[in-house]
Amino acid sequence: MHDLVVTNARIADGLGNPLREADLAVDGGRVSEIGHSVGPGRETVDAEARVLAPGIIDSHTHYDAQLLWDPTASPSPALGVTTVVIGNCGFGIAPAPPAARDRLLADLAEVEGMPLVSLKAGVDWGFESFPEYLDCLAARGVYPNVAALASHTAIRTAVMGDESARRAATAAEVDEMSRLLREAMAAGAVGLGSSTNENHRGRGGIPIASRFAGEEEFDAFARVLSEFEHGVFLITTGHHMGIPFMEAFAEASGKPALYAAHFHYPHEPERGRRIMHEAEAARRRGHPVYTQGSCQPLALGFSLDAAYIMKMIEGWPATSDQSELARIYRDPAFRDRLRKTLSRPDPGRVFNGGWEWVIVTRTANPALSDLEGSSVQEIAARRGEEPLDVFFDVALEDELETYFTLYMLNMDEEGVAELIRNDGTLVSLSDAGAHNSLLCDAGFGMHLLGHWVRETGTFDLPAAVRKVTSDPARLYGMVDRGRLVPGAFADMVLFDPDTVGITALERHFDLPAGGERLLRRAPGLHGTWVNGVQVFDGLDYRALAGRPGRVLRRFAPPAAPGGAVRGQAA
User: Fold this and answer.
1) Measuring CA to CA, which residue among 559, 558, 532 is closest to residue 546?
2) 259 vs 519: CA distance, rounded Å
3) Residue 102: Cβ within 10 Å count
4) How many CB atoms lie within 10 A of CB 267?
5) Core-most of 142, 407, 524, 529, by most CB within 10 Å?
6) What is the DSSP pairing of strand 56-58 with strand 506-511?
């Protein structure tokens, strides 16, 4: 009698092989048998000829804090995700000496757009060191499996305090940071996360601490990683640190260096292709450099009472007082200064005045509802006014409650397809757990299977499944995950390939202290299992006596992703 039997399934093994019609049995959390008539199970699920595939591995999330109050890591399992990697961009909450805790949360609130009131209400500091943080997660229990990158910014803050976001480290401070990284790796960190991105700012708009790291600091971290058989290095870079830096780190550490974020840039159409080719060249030289790319348009929602994405523009007001903001937005001198700034495109700035990609998504004033769905540029043309003025005027007419959506990157599908088909690009970049009121890209896997397989034919289904399952599992060294073969852990999703996809954004106020977030659902997803236990039934999370996910601490040496994607040379 098996623990679980799934009958009448079309099995995608995660390795890119053709679908196989078979039953699948699970015992002790692992796949025990695949074939016809595998025998009875204590629990039986009729797949009804739907596809049974490995669960999606989301290699770029920010659930570091959320997991302390939400073991489900919502909404990821409801969107087909069975394993999450946290600590990305070097933003985490461990190590956390008491003197550093307020700063760590304030940095997260700013750089990752998380409500500070929710962080303070939800984070219970039952740990201080990174090993204690992993112990804390394991003791509380988690629904998805969790792998954690050591956090560069948290390590720097723990060692240097407020000075971490002011200057380069001394030799003694670098030695202490190296000790903390070594401690984290020995305790089960999957690698190191960092950021040098110009747009990453923490508390009070100050550049995040890792941006002050010098060459000696990164060299020391590479030496630490070289001491371990496992490990990866993930860094979110800006314009001044690209693939050559990644290659040097990969060569020194002997570990994969992952470049984030890899997009198709509408204002620099060759940039994404150049990054892809530079990473390919590094791999040909024997240095494992990969990128993290997205299969979705990058879009952020915002209103002008808290315009996170616009704060990256020089001269944008720092105040949060609405009456003061309204006064500034009405000021012709402010508008003229902003107009002048936007007239000088800056590749390091997310928004450069592309008003055709700023959409009025929702209005509070019924008299403005006819604007919903129109771009600022379209409204400006109808009114015979400049788009920048219309942008502020509409918001002011709506008492700053107008909700805009800014489409920033990945709008050209032909350019996106070229990037994500490449075997050196990991499809990920959900940012799940961050920017909760601005976006929800945790359903990237469902979007890949629906849009890029069914609607565009860019991938065949086995290749698309492989891109988000065994590929990241191999590169991160996740043992016996990312594939459905006997002996592998039974992390699984059941879906209908004819209907799978993601819905539009929905507003919820269910974070601690009533914090807002945006969520999506996944039509066509009929179940998610973690280590053989169903956590999501297609409609809701299952009430479970225990929490089946594991905090992953043992990793194999990294391995290159699998074979060529259809349509791409081997």
Assistant:
1) 532
2) 27
3) 12
4) 12
5) 529
6) unpaired
Sequence-distant (6+) residues with CB within 8 A of 172 are none
Q: Selecting from 3.30.420.10, 3.30.565.10, 3.20.20.140, 2.60.40.1120, what CATH number does the domain 57-295+410-476 have?
A: 3.20.20.140
Backbone torsion region of residue 215, taken as left when φ is above 0, otherwise alpha when ψ lies between -120 and 50, otherwise beta:
alpha
The span from the CA of 183 to the CA of 129, in Å, is: 9
Rounded CA separation 25/193 (Å): 37
Question: Higher-confidence residue: 208 or 564?
Answer: 208
Cα dihedral value 109, 114, 116, 121, nearest 10: -130
Element (H, E) at 302: strand 298-302
What is the pLDDT confidence band of residue 114, given thresholds at 50, 70 and 90?
confident
Contacts of 346 (CB under 8 A, 6+ apart): 352
Number of Cβ within 10 Å of residue 273's Cβ equals: 16
* Burial of residue 531 (number of CB atoms within 10 Å: 0-12, 13-18, 19+): buried
Query: Rounded to the nearest 5°, which phi and psi values hold at 461?
Result: -60, -45
Residue with tokens 């001044």: 240
Q: Where are the domains of the chain?
A: 57-295+410-476, 300-408
Tokens of 172: 């003694």
Q: pTM of the prediction?
A: 0.89
Question: Which residue's entry shows tokens 């399952």?
Answer: 469
Total Cβ atoms within 10 A of residue 464: 27
Kindly state the tokens that stand for 499.
């209907």
Question: What does each C-alpha distance from 290 to 16, 94, 280 come to in angstroms?
Answer: 20, 26, 8
Q: What is the pLDDT of residues 304-345, one digit of tens each?
A: 887 777 877 888 888 888 899 999 999 999 999 999 998 887
Phi then psi dihedrals of residue 214, to 5 deg: -95, 180
Task: Give one DSSP letter per residue of 411-441, joined into a string.
Answer: --HHHHHHHHTSTTEEE----BTSSTTT---
> pLDDT tens, 153-168?
999 999 999 999 999 9
Cα–chain center distance at 453: 21
